[in-house]
Design brief:
This is EAL domain-containing protein. The protein has 284 residues and is α/β, with parallel strands linked by helices. Helices cover 47% and strands 19% of the residues. The structure holds ligand C2E and magnesium ion (3 copies).
Length: 284
């Protein structure tokens, strides 16, 4: 009601709404200088082959080192960056930085390794997205097969024909495509017929509590089985315990990712982990 009456009518704003608006404004102002001030970094979380224990790749996760607030997670600022359009230049930076680092790892002899990058809806639907990606691949001289793009169902579904055209082009460039947070979005299975996807990442909300939690156990069993039968690489997110790990292995799920193997690490710490090539927990 306050909104309808226009910007000058503050009387219906309660204190909480006001605090939220001030907070958003604070984040937005900070985001506007964060790129130039080099306040972003990427953390990398390994993905582990559940049969061999070998690290097959990493997922790049954006971090913001805020001068006053310290380390901030994507949940604190990505949706605000989307609302004010800043996600487009930020995404370009993420992609370039992830490709640059992956190239360094490949040159250091860590093979095979691929890096997954999360792509937000606005970045995906930006008209320069494909050209930016081509430029970055060329600039960094990274083999496109070593780059995986993680897309959520909500990125793809609103305009599935448009999305499909982009995905086909991405396939022809040679990058790998993953559906992130599988099962949580629009949850239509039809895009599995439509889209040229390589990887299904089962959302961590389903992995939680398995195998004891019957509902999640049944969902994870069914989704993994379907994914394998349809020839996707299936990755379970948010693996935190040995029990979850063992159960996923018994399902012949391809890969796992989560704090059980390793939390997301700054690049130099990730390099040290890659030198061992194997998730430490699996050795015990
Ligand atoms: P996501 O792509 O599903 O990434 C997995 C999230 O789970 C990460 O949170 C990761 O730190 C967290 N995680 C990893 N292992 C565990 C575990 O064992 N247990 C639990 N409970 N959580 C675990 P993070 O880094 O806070 O990122 C949150 C989301 O923000 C990501 O979800 C992704 O959707 C988005 N995001 C991250 N980096 C970027 C980026 O560069 N660009 C865009 N557009 N979005 C990003
Ligand atoms: Mg992801
Ligand atoms: Mg995910
Ligand atoms: Mg998730």
């Amino acid at each position: 009601y306050a909104k309808k009456k226009g910007r000058n009518n503050y009387q219906f704003f309660n204190a909480a709404m006001n605090r939220r608006a001030v907070e958003r404004q604070f984040i937005e102002v900070g985001l506007r200088r964060a790129l130039e001030a080099q306040e972003f970094s990427l953390y990398y979380q390994p993905k582990v082959n559940l049969k061999t224990g070998k690290i097959t790749g990493v997922e790049a996760l954006l971090r913001w080192h805020h001068p006053e607030r310290g380390l901030m997670l994507p949940g604190d600022f990505v949706s605000i960056a989307e609302d004010c359009g800043l996600i487009v230049p930020i995404s370009r930076w993420v992609l370039r930085e992830a490709c640059r680092q992956t190239k360094l790892w490949l040159e250091a002899g860590f093979k095979p390794i691929s890096t997954a990058v999360n792509i937000s809806a606005l970045a995906f639907h930006n008209q320069n997205f494909l050209q930016d990606l081509r430029d970055i691949l060329q600039e960094t001289a990274l083999d496109p097969a070593c780059l995986e793009l993680e897309l959520t169902e909500s990125v793809l579904m609103p305009d599935s024909q448009f999305s499909n055209e982009i995905l086909q082009t991405l396939k022809s460039i040679g990058v790998k495509l993953a559906i992130d947070d599988f099962g949580t979005g629009y949850s239509s299975l039809s895009y599995l017929q439509e889209f040229p996807i390589d990887v299904l990442k089962i959302d961590q909300s389903f992995v939680r509590g398995i195998p004891e939690l019957a509902r999640n156990r049944i969902i994870v069993t069914a989704v993994t089985g379907m994914g394998i039968s349809l020839k996707y690489r299936v990755i379970a997110e948010g693996v935190e315990t040995r029990k979850q790990f063992s159960f996923l292995t018994s399902l012949e799920c391809d890969e796992g990712q989560g704090n059980y193997f390793s939390p997301p690490l700054a690049a130099d710490r990730c390099t040290r982990l890659l030198k061992t090539g194997i998730a430490e927990n699996l050795l015990h």
